[in-house]
Amino acid sequence: MKKKIINISIDIDNIHHYLKARNYEPTEHTKLGSIYNYALPRMLDLFEKYNIKATFFTVGEDALKYPDVIKLMHHNGHEIANHTLNHHQHFGELQYSDMEYEILECNKILEDITGDKVIGFRAPGWNINNNTLSILKEGGFKYDSSVFPSKLIPILNLFNYVTNKGRMKSNLGKNMKIGFASKKPYYPHLENFWKKSNQNEILEIPPTVVPFLNLPFLGTSLYKFGKPLFKVSKTIIDLYYDLILYELHAIELVGFEEVNDNRLSVKPGFKFSLKKKIDLYNYFLDSFKGLESKTLKEVSEIYYENSVILK
Ligand SMILES: [Zn+2]
């Protein structure tokens, strides 16, 4: 039997993005460098231990500040992909030219640092509009991973709004049709990106959503709901998918004291001890043993080269 594929992707949202999304300014005590100084090196060690080659969705303005960390990730065989220049919380509301600038400028920075072409994109907050895929296509991208195909999104948004005490609004789910998008990779219609098309201009690789239950399968869910839901989700996913995407956020591996800003404790598990956080990472990485780890770039190459898989 063919080995199933696991892709681990990380959105490197930075501390100031989490604060900005909730309309907070950093205090004089907030430690803004903790993601790049602590969380990412920890993640790289864990990935080395488990032989994982991951995809890091990187924000251009942060890459400029920490080029050595980006170089190390790239050197270790991970893929560096585009998560926009400034991580606009309402990315999907940007005008065409602003959106294009956010995407292409980020690519220039990342490609300058690594010397490698960047071909993958994920929007902040899974929030794209009907211009985004055309911009990506024109920019020479091969895949997008911004369509979140869950019918539960309105509920998850409400949940998020309540846990953040109304400080964080999301545009995700404005378009209910996204919930009906394919849960497996597909070639999307450029404007109606939740629909399949016959053109293979760009590949959409959605994050894994549990079939039927529509629950997102990602690090945030493990931190919020614990191991029992992870186990049930993984059991169902194993039955239906040959490719599993598991999405993480670098903030999950930073110690509470290393950030020193209590306002972010609305994030699931933010106050867990560092030991517990590392244990949770070991837990899911253990559960993925036996799967073949690939970057999204490698996944997209399989799809482009082997049309059999598309059926
Ligand atoms: Zn993000």
CATH level-4 homologous superfamily: Glycoside hydrolase/deacetylase
The helix count comes to: 12
* Bound ligands, each once: zinc ion
General form? globular
CATH topology: TIM Barrel
Kindly state the percentage of residues in helix.
40-55%
- Main sheet, how many strands, which sense, barrel? 5 strands, parallel
**CATH class group:** Alpha Beta
What's the number of domains?
1
- The radius of gyration over CA amounts to 18 Å
Order of SSEs: EHHEHHEHEHEHEHHEHHEH
Beta-strand segment tally: 8
The CA-CA distance between the termini, in Å, is 18 Å
If classified by CATH, what would the architecture be?
A: Alpha-Beta Barrel
Low-confidence stretches: none
Give the amount of beta strand, in percent.
5-15%
Average pLDDT, rounded to a whole number, is: 92
By helix and strand content, what is the structural category?
alpha/beta
What does this structure look like?
The chain has 311 residues and is of the alpha/beta class. The protein has a single domain, classed as Glycoside hydrolase/deacetylase (TIM Barrel, Alpha-Beta Barrel). Helix content is 40%, strand content 10%. The protein has 12 helices and 8 strands. Strands 1, 2, 3, 7 and 8 form a 5-stranded parallel β-sheet that branches. It has a 3-stranded parallel β-sheet with strand order 4-5-6, covered by helices on one side. The longest helix is centred in the middle third of the chain and has 19 residues, at 96-114. Bound molecules: zinc ion (ZN). Zinc ion (ZN) binds next to loops.
